[in-house]
Specification:
It contains ten helices and two strands; from the N terminus they run ααααααααββαα. By secondary structure, it is mainly α. It has a domain of 84 residues. Strands 1-2 form a two-stranded antiparallel ribbon. It is elongated.
């Protein structure tokens, strides 16, 4: 049992530096904490403690050697995939959270340009002259200003995702800007339709063509 308010001396801290725990010790610590329920009071204390916390490596670059980076990468690769139960818990914990405009701006900056997984050297897809905000607004209005998959409204998309509903090209051809080939989607749903193999694109093309037929015929 730890002593409340106890602080380690500088000598103790130096001794602990670089010390590695055995797998047996890690398993014991894990078993000890497994199933523990943290009270709301404790959660509030933890939240308050983090308000003014500044990570030691904030705004620092090139602080790890190539050898250390490789070790960290290898350790992540060895991790088993999360169970469905864990994924459900993470999903539930993040559901309903609203990101601030500053947070959204940071996410955007971190995933823009060469940092984006889909980066193709700065080559922009060709759009015809009729493609623009006026056309996108017409399609949003036609689709009742809501995502045609999850029904998130345009206003809610601006608040939660920092942008208006995206306009998706059903056949993935940027030059085909006929209204029948365009559909309003929120950022999350739009991402689902653009990531993956070609066979996934065929699925989404069939899905949206059927949806368009149901809505307008």
């Amino acid at each position: 049992m730890g002593k409340k308010g106890y602080k380690h001396s500088k000598e103790s801290i130096e001794k602990m530096k670089g010390r590695k725990l055995s797998q047996e010790t890690k398993d014991k610590i894990g078993a000890f904490h497994k199933g523990k329920i943290v009270s709301e009071e404790t959660r509030e204390k933890m939240r308050r403690a983090k308000i003014n916390y500044i990570p030691w490596n904030k705004n620092l670059t090139n602080i790890y050697s190539e050898k250390t980076l490789k070790k960290m990468s290898d350790a992540q690769k060895r991790k088993p995939p999360s169970s469905q139960e864990t994924r459900d818990k993470l999903s539930k914990a993040h559901k309903g959270k609203i990101k601030t405009p500053e947070h959204l701006a940071k996410i955007g900056a971190a995933n823009r340009g060469p940092n984006n997984y889909n980066w193709k050297g700065g080559v922009k897809p060709y759009y015809p002259s009729e493609w623009g905000e006026r056309l996108r607004k017409i399609i949003r209005n036609r689709d009742n200003n809501e995502c045609q998959m999850c029904h998130k409204t345009n206003q809610k998309s601006k608040i939660e995702e920092g942008r208006a509903l995206a306009i998706h090209h059903i056949d993935y051809n940027k030059k085909n800007c006929f209204s029948k080939n365009l559909i309003a989607l929120c950022t999350s749903c739009h991402t689902r339709t653009t990531i993956g193999k070609i066979k996934n694109r065929k699925f989404w093309m069939n899905f949206f063509n059927r949806l368009y037929y149901i809505n307008f015929y």
